[in-house]
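Two quick folds needed for the group meeting slides. Do the first one here.
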Amino acid sequence: MVIIFSNAIGAISGMGGGVIIKPIFDFIGADPVEVISFYSTMAVFTMSIVSIIKRIKSGMKFNWRIIIFVAIGAMIGGCGGNIAFNFLLDLFEDEAIVKLVQITITIITLIFAFIYSKYNFKSLKLNHFISYITCGIILGFVSSLLDIGGGPINVALFMLVFSMGIKEATVYSICTIFFSQLSKLFTITISGGLEKYNLSMLLYIIPAAIIGALIGVKASKVLSEDKVAKVFRTVIIIVCCINIYNGLNLY
């Protein structure tokens, strides 16, 4: 139920679902942080595939120049974020410290995204391929490090850097999420293998992720730009509260 709801909201808002899945799974506390990271990654990766396929089938046109260069950056950043995540796990013996680092950075990105989406500061209107790659690296690194798939920072950064409307930004955010999570799964597979995870859980995670994505894509077609912005900001507030609660209850 968590994944269906999260991926539906993630597909509408471009957040990817992980920004909701990760803190709720932390709150439930049934699995260690590394396992939660893997489950969240799989759910968000599946959502991104379904969302992209549905949008292509609906005839939506993409600027492939943006997608390709952001994807290159996202894959580089995604690998870097996973390496940083594993470094934190090795550096701190107490898993709670790693969670606290993730929560702190997540809240900072949530505040940035909320402020930008609400007040619409002047955008930069960059269109050079280096700006696309740099943006992709930042987004890939943050999403992989925090296990949130993409989160609100994706949408806000696309709006800020490339002067996109929020509905357009959500589409490119989901494309970025696909490549950043693909690189993270690749890094997980070659670095430690999958034997440490209970893969039977994927029998529930993947179908739930698909259902959530289908609901989200359908809803996003009928919602106006203003409604999507309201969903986006509402989710930010809710997730921020969950993260603060989790942070206060770590010790």
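Then this one, please, same format:
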Amino acid sequence: MSNRVSRRQALAALTGLGAAAALPTAAAQACSRIFWNDNPVKLVGRTLDWSRNFDEVLWALPAGMEREGRVPENPAKWTSRYASVIIAGLDVCTEEGVNEKGLVVNLLFLDGTKYEPRNSTRPGIAFFQWPQYYLDNYATVNEVIGNLDQVQVVNTALGEEYPEGLPLHVAIADAAGNSAIIEFIKGEPTVHMGRHYQVMTNEPTYDEQIANLLKYKPFGGTIAELPGGIQATDRFVRAAYTLKYLPKTSDVPQAVANMMSLVNNVSVPFGSPYSGVSGTYPTWYRSIIDPDALVYYVQTTITPNTFWVDMNKLDLKPGAPALRMPIFDEKLMGEASGAFKEGKPSV
């Protein structure tokens, strides 16, 4: 069930071959990501779980924006090829988003991450720009994996709160249903690539998550009872199990409701004691992205409403202004593209 390959192997596999043909099928702060890519309506769902929220803002970013990697030596420089709609925290960190081609990127916590040693001969981007770089430049999972060496992801300070940076990994999905997970293990990027990589949570590493999943009866093991805890391993198993039996439908509202029921199942309620870690790390928002229709659904846990943005209703051509919308605004409900206001992004 595992498609674990190094960066070198992933690049070699993509040389002249499609990823599906080239590759075989096979506790800290919390988040979960689920890609429902075997349904007529493809959807990417996620939770953002942390000790606090980061005043997240939904940004609509036009194509043609000039960017620079926020590292001291040899920062990458690029102009965004594609428009995107993202959720950013602390004004600068792209936590997730979708671009106009239907590429979706989600950034999650992974305790034990060890980024590559800095090689200043390669252009660098700060780790909190990682999703944005992909959204700006690529349309498919294959393009992302085929260009992994173009920049180096660099662990840098994220404001005064995180002077040592953060250990993270990313999940990538596209409108064709392809999926990939990228982790930095022992200083080397590791790629898990294939349509069957639908679920991602946090620690341990993806290899270990898959090994744990295979212990359960629905996945060929012997353990009959599903885990009910909020730890990353428990959420991984529960998400994979629920996705396996989620009723398929071509009805978009029903598909979104089905996915939201799954995302709620792996959310962390306020006040839940987090085993092994001091404090509580609740879910602050849940999102669902439709990479075909380019609709972005958001449900926060401190407001009673769900709202969504239809990217097709926004002017995101080069030269258009960037637009912002704080996601914790209790007045947001239903289709909310008209609630954006012009702003100056820092991402």
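Slide caption for protein two: The domain at 4-342 is CATH 3.60.60.10 (Penicillin V Acylase; Chain A).
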